[in-house]
Structures are given as structure tokens and as C-alpha cells.
Amino acid sequence: MKNTLGLTLLLTAGLAAGAASAQMTDATEIVEAANKASYYAGEDGRSAARMTIVQGDGSRQRRQFTLLRQDVADGGDQRYLVVFSRPADIRGTVFRVEKHVGDSDDRWLYLPALDLVKRIAAGDKRTSFVGSHFYYEDISGRGTEEDRHTLIETTEDYYVIESTPKDPDNVAFARYHTRIDRETLLPMRTEYQREDGEVYRRMTVTEVETIDGYPTGTEARMEDLDSGGHTVTQFRFSEYDVGLPSRIFSERSLRNPPRDWLRRE
Amino acid sequence: MRWTSIALTLAIAGMPLASAVGQSSGDDWGDDPWAQEQTGWQWYGFIEGAVAPRLQNDPAVDNDYTLGETRLQIEGERQFGDYTATLKADAWLDGVEEGGRGDLREANLAGRLTPQTDIRFGRQIITWGTGDLVFLNDLFPKDYVAFFSGRGDDYLKAPTDAVKLSWFGDVNVDFVWMPRATPNRFITGERLSYFSPQAGRRVAAPPEIDPRDRDQVGEDSEFALRLYQTIDGVEYAGYAYHGYDKQPSAFDRDADEAYFPRLSSLGASVRRPLLGGIANLETAYYHGEDGNGRDPDLPNDQWRWLGGYEHEPFSDITLGWQYSLDWTQDHDALIDALPNGQRRYAPDEYRHLLTNRVTWQGQRQDLTLSLFTFYSPSDEDYYFRPRATYRFGDRLTGTAGANLFGGEDDWTFHTQLEDNSNAYFRLRYSF
């Protein structure tokens, strides 16, 4: 049974990949497909993640966490649970998100030393995620409707998309360019530019593995070209379609994380 | 406090600094975090040096410091099937109370009793309610001595021995049984001075406030209940408590000692997103032993209200606002029952409290600057908590801040602490 299922998944993924490599010409369609490939693989997912944060002066910090994700609707709302295990001062902190597309996310933070469940204001999604060079938005996805997208180039391997914000007052960038792999539809490089075209922030996917039939970026690097610092995020033990029950995305899991579902298989 | 203690504190606090700087660029995950998950006990902890000089002389306390200590915390965790055992213990050299001290903060077993029920059994920290440093329905013990004297926010909540059962269904239920009453770690005069209505001035130990114990297991039980559910992003909760006042607020004239009177409470709260921020509303009715308010040696019933709003108007800046009201019931009866000289010390019928929190995070959250302000227009007093925290790395964190009290009348909640105003410095090395 399990083998049959695996084969079916492989075949389906093969079909999907086959369809993907046919040339697309509509920028919005490409961006939405890339958004789904990056953030919506499978019905749900689990992964261990490790971040290495390197400042401009060479000093390093680390973050380690396990990420559980469930899609409410493909390309739409999602539920996240992030359980931190390192470093010592944030160990046991749990972050819970109900992501709403086109509306503010609901976010909770559990601080174990005080047994405190704190609800966090929606706020700016373009601020550092747990002290790294990645933004909250880089982790959970930026709404495709927040920018205007233009296909500026199609090479043998990539679609190159230029995106400009509909509300430029809310963001620091004037535009960003994304290179999307035509085969996997994963965004492989995103460069954020200022008004004069200077690139000041760059995200690069440096490793891709196919997991459960889904091409997955397993290592990504975010560079802050102003300060010279960068963060490398590595994903390991990733799995999709594990059958996470909805009920684990709840306050219960903040105080008592669902160990059965956090365990690596 | 002796200078030797401070030198010792700084010397011990400085040791990890040297080693942290030495290895800050190294690859020090210690074990291989990508290997199979840990089994057996895992140990963590920190060493912290802290010092808090008073910013003025306190005529009642013969000590220029509210805090001077070197602290070691060890935390252990182990999985036993579906259960997690947690131990957390502190030991410290105390320069204010002169000697070694220890505190077992957590020793509990937590896990799934049934698919719908969780249990946590043993010594633990319990928190609920919607306030930010203002507590209405959270009648679990607090450590105000730690909070006012310059220790970390982690120490505001004191541990309690309890069985906590949590049932998850259409309505979630938390039920807590504390087999013996656990009061707040209240001001006894040992470290901080306070206002004594009997003496009519600020005093400190000796004599220490030493209320009658409430530590008979079973007989001095306390119970707390919470019902809660989130519907469309709105969090609703109802609360009940039956136990004892956490402060020694009653006085037995025959025995000439303070004690913890009975206290029951009922309350409710709601918390929801509003205009891009988070709004909360909470209420609690405190019912004690003095139903008609005529006994001046017992606190009257109170109806408390709290409204709050927190938002992020600019990137990396969070603003929090709260208004709370303590409405003392049968206030006229209380005033009539008090002797003339004591009347001015009685609580106002309506005590209004405003709080504000400003937090700014910079340098990718390595630097946090914050100011928390308590201001009571009715008591005409204030309490400022400015603070700067810097994360030098994953292991080393430095904090500098102050506890500043003041106001109009010596006997109000915050003004009485005026001579304890302090600046504090803490350095913590985590491992």
C-alpha cells in the first residue's frame, strides 16, 4: 500500500513537473505557481530547521526549531506551529500562526519561563524573524496580490519576474527581481532593489531536494548587502502529507507541544 | 552590602564573559543537533551576576543595594514516553541577605492523561489572564520582591505546588488544585521598605512581617478554574478561584499578627484583534471574608476591570496601553469603621491605574529598549521601568535598567516604595 502510494505520488509529481516545464507567459500565473511551490507543497508538512546568523563583524548566532504546517486551502490560509529548541535562552518558546491571506494573521507566542501565552499584534511582516536576516514574510510567504508582477525575461532555465509594490510606503524596496526555476517553479534568487536599482538584500536557494515528490529548497541564504551580514537556513528531516490533525494547531500545543508529531520519523 | 560581595559577583559574572568572547566565532553546537533526538536527561542553565544600587539613601533599610548576587540556574528535562519531567533549581550567593540561598522553581511531570486531557503535576509556574504586568484573574503567586528589586522578569511569577488538569473539547477547561496555599513572595521589610499604617511611616525589618502560615496540606487548599475557547480569532475565557488572598491583608488583633484571609473570585475576559492591534477586556469580582465592609482589619470586596490595547505603529516599535479600575465595595462602611487617624490610608473607592509599554527592537533584535510605566491618577503615584537588553551572542546577555517609584502620599502603593528606587545591571551566561 505504502509503495503504491509513493509511486502514485511520484507519478503525480512527475506529471506536475512535466506540466510546469511547458512555457508559461503570464506573470501572475507564474508568481502564484511559485508561491504554491514554495509555501504550499503537500496538504501539510513538517521540517527541522537550523539558522546560522552571521553578522557583518563575523560573530555568529544560531536558532534551531521544528516547523509544522497545515494548509487550510491551497494557496490560501495556513496554520503554523514553530517549536524552538536552541539556543538556551529561547528553548521551549513556541510560536503559533493562523495565516490569513488578504487579512492580518493571528499570532501567539508562548514563553515557558512565565507560562505566558502572549498574543502578538499583526504588525510589520518585514521585520527580522527571531533575530535572523530573514523576515517573517520570507518564512510564511508574501501575498502575491501585494505587488504588480511583470515577466521581464524567459531564459532556458528561468523565468525572471519583476515585482513592484502596490503600496510602496509600507516597504523599503522599490522593486524586486525573482528568478524562478522553470522546472520546479521554485524561486531560486530574489533581489530587492532601492529606487536607483541598487540591490541591498538578496535571497538565494543553494540546495534543492525532491522530498515526497515535491521539489524543496533545503538550504537558503539571505544576505544583507548593507551590513555585510547573512543568515543561512537549512531544512532537514522534511516530510509532506504526514496527516497532521487540525487540533494540534491550538493553545494546547503551546504549553504541551505535540511530541508525536514533532518527532522525526 | 559588603564590597567583597560585589567584587565576587562581578568577578564570577566576568568569568563567562572571557570564555564567551574567546569562543564566540567557534562552532559550538556542542553535540550534533541533526543527529537522532536526545534521550535521557538534557541539562541547561545559566550563571548570572546582578547588582542593583539604591538611587537614594533609605533611612529604614541599612543597605545601599536592593540586589547583589551571583546566581546559578540548572534546568533538566527528560522524556518518559508521553510524559516530560522538568526540574529547575536556582542557587545563589546573596550579598543583600548575606549568604547562600536556594530555590526549587520547577519539579513536575507533564503529559497526556487521555487524548483529551493533559496533566501537569508538581511544582510549576502557572499564568493566565490577559493583562500585561497587571493581574486580575491570575491569582497564582507572584514575587514582587524580585520584580521591584531588579531581578529578571522571569522571576515575577513564583512557583506553586499544584495539580493542573486541562481538558480539551468544545470548551477547554483548566482546573488547578493547590493542596496548600501559596502566597505571593510579598514585601516583608527584609530587602525593601514599605509603608506601615500602624507606624504611620515607612518601615523595614526588623521586625519582619511574619503572617500566620497557611500551609496545612488539604485544609489550606486552593482551587482555580478557567474555561476558554477561541472563536473566529476572538479568545473568550471565564475564571473562578477559591482560596486565600495572596497578600497578608488581614489582621488578627488578639494574636497581633497578619494573616491571609479567604478570597474567592469570579471573572471573564475577551481578547481579539482590533484595528491592526490586539485589544483585551477583563473583569474579576473579589469576594472576601468581609461581606458588609465593616471590619477595618479585613479587605473589602472589590470589582476589578481592565482594558488594554497593544499595537505596532512603526516597524520594530510596540506600544501597549492599559487602564484598570479597582472598585472597592461598601467603601462608606470601611471609612466609618476606621479610626480617624487611619482613614487617609484606606484605599480610594475607585483606584484608577494607567500603564504604558514602549518597546523598540534593533540590530535584528539583539538590542531591546523598553519603558513600562505605571501611573495612578487617583493615588497620584508612578512606577517607571526603563530597560536596555543586549544580546552579545547566543550565550551572553546584558541588561541594564531601573525601578523608579514616586508620588504624592507616602502610603500609596507605588509611593511607599520610593526609597527602594534602584538601577540594576545583570549579566547572564547561558549554557
In short:
The complex is a heterodimer of chains A (265) and B (431). Chain A has 265 residues and is α+β, with helices and mostly antiparallel strands.
Text of the CATH class of chain A = Mainly Beta
Q: H/E order of the elements of chain B?
A: HEEEEEHEEEEEEEEEEEEHEEEEE
**Percent in strands of chain B:** over 45%
Structural class category of chain B: mainly beta
CATH architecture term of chain A: Clam
Q: So how many helices of chain B?
A: 3
Rg of chain B, Cα atoms, Å: 23 Å
Q: Give the C-alpha Rg of chain A.
A: 19 Å
- The CATH topology annotation of chain B reads as Porin
Provide the fold topology.
The complex is a heterodimer of chains A (265) and B (431).
Chain A: H1 2-21, H2 27-39, E1 44-54, E2 60-71, E3 78-86, E4 94-99, E5 106-111, E6 116-120, H3 136-140, E7 147-154, E8 158-165, E9 175-181, E10 187-193, E11 199-211, E12 214-224, E13 229-240, H4 251-255, H5 259-262
Antiparallel strand pairs in A: 1-2, 1-13, 2-3, 3-4, 4-5, 5-6, 7-8, 8-9, 9-10, 10-11, 11-12, 12-13
Chain B: H1 3-23, E1 42-53, E2 65-80, E3 83-94, E4 99-114, E5 117-124, H2 144-149, E6 160-167, E7 172-178, E8 194-196, E9 201-203, E10 222-231, E11 234-244, E12 250-252, E13 257-259, E14 262-274, E15 277-287, E16 302-314, E17 317-328, H3 331-337, E18 350-362, E19 367-376, E20 381-391, E21 396-407, E22 422-430
Antiparallel strand pairs in B: 1-2, 1-22, 2-3, 3-4, 4-5, 5-6, 6-7, 7-10, 8-9, 10-11, 11-14, 12-13, 14-15, 15-16, 16-17, 17-18, 18-19, 19-20, 20-21, 21-22
